[in-house]
Amino acid sequence: MGTLTTAQIQLTEAELKLLQTLVYQECGMYFDERRSHFLKDRLQRRLKACQLDSFYSYYRLLTSREGRAELALLLENLTVNETSFFRNKPQLELLQKSVLEDLLRRKQERRDYALRVWSAGCSSGQEPYTVAILICDALAYYYLRNPLPFEMPSPKPLIPPPWKVEIVASDISYASLRIGQEGLYTEQQMEPVDYTCRLRYFEKSGDKSGAEASY
Question: Where do the structural domains in the chain lie, given as residue ranges?
Answer without folding.
Answer: 6-78, 89-211
